[in-house]
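[Structure tokenization] protein backbone as discrete codes
[Encoding] learned vocabulary of local backbone shapes
[Protein] chain in single-letter code, fold in tokens
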Amino acid sequence: MSIQSGTSEFHKDKNASMIGGSGPRTFTNAISFKTPYAEIPTVTTALTGFDILNDSNSRISVFAKDVTADGFTLVLHTWNTTKIWSASVTWMAYSSMW
């Protein structure tokens, strides 16, 4: 089994609408694998840290999309009036092929 992992940061300084927007908002980070896979791997994501203003409900989701043997797009999504200063997302990619 082949496993690769990493952590990606989302911050309001790079995405002003994380803190100043409302409604649905999506932010992405392009992730490239250090070593390409022989097949498309499975990618899992986990929210591992966040700084969210406490004046409204906290609404946040993270997931991987457009997964290829070379990498994927890491997505952070929020909606309504949630204001995010920053968020950390850890990901792990694995394949049963060596």
